[in-house]
Amino acid sequence: MSEKLSFKDRLKLVTIRHRQKAVLHATIAIVILAIPFFGHHWYFSANMPTETRSDDVNYRISMVGDMMMGRHVHDAAVQSGEPIDRVFEYTYPFFEESDYVTGNFETPILDTDDPEVVAHMDDAELHNKDIHIYSEPWAMEALENAGFDSVNFANNHALDYGDLSLQQTLSAIGSSSLETLGIGDAINLSEEELKDGAIDAADMSYFNINGDVRVGIIGFTDVFVQGFSAQDFVGGVFTPQYQGLAELRNRLLEAKAPEEEGGGGADIVMVHIHWGDEYQVGYNDRQEELAHYITNYGADVIIGHHSHVLEPVTVVDGTNGNRAIVMNSLGNFVFDQGWTRTKESTIAQLDFLNDGTKQLSFVPMYIENTQPRETAGWTKFYRDYRIFRTLRKELPDEWWTIEDGRLKIDLDAAGVLEGVDLTS
């Protein structure tokens, strides 16, 4: 039996333990107190990356989640004395070294320099929703300058101000070089109407990879309120309402049909889809159901958004032998929400490599002062762990690796985009 400690010995032991804890607490206090003096950059902000693309990448498609340039995003730009383009300050190199860039734009475009627009905004607000947000026309220019090729407007805020927001947004689109997805003057427009500049909300946009592989991309939202849905002769966003799911099926089938048969001749079909539950890290049954539906009719890459947080990546098998990679939510990219999970972000990069292989990589990002930037500093390990754990949690271990600070999914091992080869 061990000998009892005397009062003096016990006091000495308590003192030693107190000193050990005091050192730890003092260190934490010093770190916290140092932040105002050294700035946020000292502990988690990234420097401007110089190279973001390795030599083995033949072609790269970059994808991001929810963006908006109103509310506090606009306020932060005003307070900084910089143009709204500041939101992309730390991401320009990633987009500059991409061949195609796309994302979801979460607001309508309203020109508040126009007194007539301002005079009608209050009356135009839809009363069947609580939150109404918008961005100014220069947001489109900021997206262009950042390197975006297309943006999806099919979401639950595009028509926050009813017909006013629709007409203002379509006007801004008409003045922009950006391809816009999921919003338009109607669905099933005639060739004559399209030639006159009208926009079909269910239009499939196309681009070519190195002239050999044809890609179709479309926008759709499962989250909307009454008055949002485009239909024949009615403008709006592309939703499942009014036979919208059947229309989506037809557009997907048409995209994959050979050009000589009047189809789009797409080798790859990508779908932007606004869906799910806000702030829920996991996807719901409706997302799973829609993912299978879309895959059954030819989707290969599904770009999800709406929850404002990252959600797991999954792989879905279609009934036609097709297999799709599903990014259930890419979270926020440019937004003003303050919860930690709403600030965790990513750039998804679909890479076609020189050796013919394909991979989907994720750059870990964090939004600070409305600016997304790659994780850095002493919080990087922790942030990367959280981001990557969420994204890969439902994938088999043999499909993914973490290399060079990126989560990389082997699409060949996953059986996605089989038959697509840029080297042939």
TrEMBL record:
InterPro entries, per the entry: Capsule_synth_CapA, CW_Biosynth-Accessory, Metallo-depent_PP-like
Keyword set, alphabetical order: Membrane, Transmembrane, Transmembrane helix
SMART domains cross-referenced by the UniProt entry: PGA_cap
Transmembrane segments: 21-44
Source domain of life: Bacteria
Residue intervals of the Capsule synthesis protein CapA domain: 60-337
Similarity comment: Belongs to the CapA family.
Name this protein carries in UniProt: CapA family protein
Organism whose genome encodes this protein: Salipaludibacillus agaradhaerens (Bacillus agaradhaerens)
Classification lineage: Bacteria, Bacillati, Bacillota, Bacilli, Bacillales
